[in-house]
Write a structure and sequence with these properties.
By secondary structure, the protein is an alpha/beta fold. The chain has twelve helices and twelve strands. The chain is globular. Bound molecules: 4'-deoxy-4'-aminopyridoxal-5'-phosphate (PMP). The site of 4'-deoxy-4'-aminopyridoxal-5'-phosphate has 12 residues, from helix 4.
Length: about 350
């Protein structure tokens, strides 16, 4: 605490991401992709310094947004890019949710939403998950007087995803406020709501290059929505920084989007490994929530989450443990390579013996 901080900053509780290990470990705690980005990325990187580094990036990110638009079959005016979807989410909070009325949000979801709500003075109305640990879309839709709705699909850290049909029925009921669907994990088996954007001008979908495109180190995320919503984001962004993303991120993002073969191979590997991991965890007695993401959320009836977390850490394996009443017993385990998951299972066998 410093005397120089404003009262608002004194009140802040920042988001704390999973730890960055200093020594070599198997890192299954922050949902990164175990596979490298598309091969075209290395080629683009080799030429980058000579061709681009001395110049400012394109303030409209036109080339990247065009490639994004082409890959989703939408118009450039429906796209927005930013430094990771965390930044895009921050802009959305400022553009759409800064009102006196509450923002409807699931009680268990991505922990950055409360951080932004706190930072931008947005009140959250939290809706408990249902008995199957699923986001209760009905409760979100039923609430009255709000500044908007936000949820992740698949949800984090649970991994459950709702169908497109379920999301559309929420959109039919919430028509006068922004509905933000955070699709950070959508490529690992869920249906994207991007196909609904043309019909629902209040729908904003956010996505990231950090997970299915293996580019978490770059900070590149996007939003897709009606030109009206994109303009709102643009106004906030232009008041913050004239350049949406740097030229390196644009170049690399384009290469990653172009290579559909690599993208599909990597995500299919992750999905296959996820299902194999789920089975093996279940054989060890874990309850594993069904997941459409690149992680599983699991608890063991006989062992505390903290105990398993520490046991794994001692064996050089990092997973995520949330120290809250509701989630205390669970571990969120990122899907790594098959070898990494074999090591995880061996370590758990030893701990649970
Ligand atoms: N949304 C959710 C649900 C996430 O779990 C994450 C990753 N921590 C993000 C958004 C942010 O991803 P990034 O900023 O890397 O694009």
């Amino acid at each position: 605490m410093s005397q120089y901080w404003s009262p608002a900053v004194r009140e802040l509780t920042p988001y704390v991401p999973g730890e960055q290990p200093r020594e070599r470990v198997i890192k299954l705690n922050t949902n990164e992709n175990p596979y490298p980005p598309a091969p075209g990325v290395s080629e683009a990187l080799r030429n980058y310094a000579t061709d681009h580094l001395r110049l400012y990036p394109d303030p409209t990110s036109h080339a990247l947004r065009t490639t994004l638009a082409e890959s989703y079959g939408i118009s450039v005016a429906e796209t927005f890019v930013g430094n990771g979807s965390d930044e895009v989410l921050a802009f959305a909070f400022q553009a759409f949710f800064c009102h006196d009325t509450p923002l409807d949000v699931p009680s268990i979801t991505y922990s950055f939403y409360p951080v932004y709500a706190n930072l931008y003075g947005v009140t959250l109305r939290k809706h408990p998950l249902n008995a199957q640990w699923e986001v209760d879309l009905n409760a979100l839709a039923n609430a009255s007087e709000r500044s908007g709705v936000i949820f992740a699909n698949p949800n984090a850290p649970t991994g459950h995803a709702h169908s497109l049909e379920a999301i559309e029925s929420l959109l039919k009921r919430v028509t006068n406020r922004v509905v933000l669907v955070d699709e950070a994990y959508v490529d690992f088996g869920a249906e994207s709501a991007v196909t609904l954007v043309g019909r629902y001008p209040n729908l904003l979908v956010t996505g990231t290059f950090s997970k299915s495109r293996s580019l978490a180190g770059l900070r590149l995320g996007y939003a897709i929505g009606s030109p009206e919503l994109i303009d709102g984001l643009q106004r906030v962004k232009d008041s913050f920084n004239s350049y949406p993303v740097d030229s390196l991120a644009s170049l690399v993002g384009i290469e990653a989007l172009k290579d559909k073969t690599h993208f599909n191979a990597c995500r299919n590997n992750v999905i296959t490994t996820r299902e194999r991991t789920r089975q093996r965890l279940e054989q060890l007695g874990f309850d594993v929530l069904p997941s459409k993401a690149n992680f599983v959320f699991a608890q063991h009836p006989d062992f505390e989450g903290a105990q398993l977390f520490v046991g794994l850490r001692e064996r050089g394996i990092l997973v995520r443990h949330f120290n809250t009443d509701m989630l205390n017993n669970f571990l969120r385990i990122t899907i790594g390579t098959d070898d990494e998951m074999d090591s995880l299972i061996e370590a758990l066998e030893a701990i649970c013996r």
